[in-house]
Structures are given as structure tokens and as C-alpha cells.
Amino acid sequence: MDSHCDFPIELLSKDNERFQTNGCVLAKVSTVMKPWIEDQRQLHSRHTVANELPCFPLHTINGRTLAIVLQFVECHHQTPMNPLENKRLSNRSMLLETVGHTFAAMVDDLTATELVALANAANFLDIHPLLHLVCAKMATILLQQDSRGIVRTLGVSESVIPPFPVIDNKH
Asked: Residues 6 or more apart from 130 whose CB is under 8 A from it?
């Protein structure tokens, strides 16, 4: 796809919210969406239907999560996020310093449940930088807690966890 492409598409969330975005921008970061977007561009160039956008249903992603995904994609397109691979980020300020305020703010106030939904969406759409960001944020949350806090944060029933000593990660 060319670097100055503008191909509007519509994404439909599992709760039937519709989001319009530039398919060319999404295709640059999502290897899952790229083939569909390329096919739609070819079809659209041959059979233009006025005011009808190609629509892709995302039955596993809710509207709130999809809005964050698309915000990330647009920001990452304008100014790519610094890579997080092989970085040890033990607290919020290290994450902020590494990825910058814009990207850190996208995940800063999300609950563990919302972070898991965002990680699942990033994984499903194969958007590696977003998946790395979410995992780094979750790691900074978990590193600040003892083992019981981790169990509570993850929403895991303590009855399925074998007894383990309390480890203090706050050093």
C-alpha cells in the first residue's frame, strides 16, 4: 500500500458500534486486517458504490476497546511508539519515559479487565506494539503487588492457586 493512501473503512464492534477509520493506516500495523483491506480496495476501485464503506465485523471486540485500538493505531501512525521489546519496566514512570505520555495515557487508567480486553484485541488484530504496551502496563501493575494482590488483580479464585509464600515485590 502506498504511503499516502486514504481508504475509509468501517469496523463494527461486538456491541454494534460503528467506527470509521483509514484502512491504509490500519493495514500498516495489523497483519490480520491487511489482506482484507487490500481486497476491499481492489473491489472498491472496480465497483464504487456511493456512500457505502466496506464494513468488517469484529465480533470479539467491544466498542470501548475498539475505540482505544483505533486511537493507538492513529497515534502510532503519526509518531511510532518506541519499541518495548526486551525492556524491563518496573514502574509507571519508566513506562511513561519509554513510550511517551500519549501512549502511556491510553492504558494508564484502565482496569485489569479492560487491559485484558485490549490485549485480546491487539492479539486478535496482530498489532504488536499495542500488545507490548498493554503487557508492559500489566507488568508494572503486577510488579507493585504481593502475590495475594496479584491474585486479586487478575481475578483468579484463590482456591485454584496452590499455597505459596508471600513474596514482596516492592523493593
From this structure: 29, 69, 72, 73, 76, 118, 122
